[in-house]
Amino acid sequence: EAPRQAPALMNLTLEELIAGLQNGLRHEVLEGNVGYLRVDDIPGQEVMSKLRSFLVANVWRKLMGTSALVLDLRHCTGGQISGIPYVISYLHPGNTVLHVDTIYDRPSNTTTEIWTLPEVLGENYGADKDVVVLTSGRTGGVAEDIAYILKQMRRPIVVGERTVGGGLDLQKLRIGQSDFFLTVPVSRSLGPLGKGSQTWEGSGVLPCVGTPAEQALEKALAILTLRRALPAVIQRLQEALREYYTLVDRVPSLLHHLANMDLSSVVSEEDLVTKLNTGLQAVSEDPRLLVQVVRSKETSSGPEDETEEPPAVVSEVPEDEASRRALVDSVFQVSVLPGNVGYLRFDRFADASVLGVL
Fold first, then answer.
1. 89 with 130, same domain?
2. CB of 71 within 8 A of CB of 156?
3. Rounded distance, CA 257 to CA 262, Å?
4. Cβ(242)–Cβ(222) under 8 Å?
5. Rounded CA gap, 313 and 350, in Å?
6. Residue at 276 is within a domain
7. What's the CA dihedral at 79, 85, 91, 92 to 10 degrees?
């Protein structure tokens, strides 16, 4: 039996279109003022144009006031190519019209350029706000193209799994007069943002932060929590440099560097530490200037996180010889290594009076 065709959209009432749209759409504001928008199907231009006012009033305006946005495409396995500009345009941070993709359609042997909309109903999502796109191994078709375009625009942090790497538009074709059908891609992306032969088809979209799909939202929220803390971290670092750094003449350059750092790629504490150390040491020409993450014992996750307590400062010398020898052995490590190399280690300085007696 041939696949049944969906009823023509032009025959549906506005209420039926809204009901169909809501089945594939979910939105809410999460803790930390993070907007969450889950889209399971990308509607086409016909639906988008008819329901723009409804979407802006009932969905988008509720998300506009959030501090960051999570776009969840983990369950989006398809959609309409003509709907791509509507999604991209609301997340496009610039005011100019942008050519985001060119689509080749095999049956008609034609190409169609896709541009962002000249203007959107309502407002674009703020360029200074973080956007995270969630993907899974099921994310396919139009959703993949949207994730790839946004990633090439350097707009979101993509979190989750590599996408399926399917086709933009799939058609089910009967093989002769048999009961067998063949599903084939009939449209393809020629390269988002004019990237030539670079495309996601066949290989999928690689996330910026790889994690199992079921953990992607939790990971995204952790990243956003870290990114919310970045301004305060930079401010405290600037204060520490002003107050304590001994190479005073280099402090203004360091403060300028911190104020102008691009932290858009930071998604973990390790990323932040690496970026800070690389930049600060280059500006100061001082390898001793080091930023570290110090965790308290309460947040330690296991024995591997525990650090050895430094030995206490020795302030007085015991009277008996055995105790003195034990004290020396606890403070100093002495050995002769292969090649007749002497090795002396001590982790703390004792008082001069103590050293004199010992």
1. yes
2. yes
3. 10
4. no
5. 6
6. yes
7. 150
What does pTM read for this prediction? 0.77
Contact present, 100 and 88 (Cβ < 8 Å): yes
Only one residue has tokens 């055995």, namely: 322
Q: Is-contact 116 95, C-beta < 8 A?
A: no
Residue-wise pLDDT tens digits, 154-213: 899 999 999 998 888 878 888 988 889 888 888 888 876 655 556 788 889 999 999 999
Q: Which residues contact 283 (CB under 8 A, 6 or more apart)?
A: 250, 253, 254, 257
Report yes or no: 166 and 103 within 8 Å, Cβ to Cβ.
Answer: no
For 56-77, how does the pLDDT look when each residue is reduced to its tens digit (9 = 90+)?
A: 888 999 999 999 999 999 999 8
SS (H, E, C) 148-211: HHHHHCCCEEEEECCCCCCCCEEEEEECCCCCCEEEEEEEEECCHHHCCCCCCCCCCCCCCEEC
Q: Are residues 204 and 230 in the same domain?
A: no
Q: What is the pLDDT of residues 238-261, one digit of tens each?
A: 999 999 999 999 999 999 999 999
Q: Which domain holds residue 55?
A: 9-97+113-164+198-210
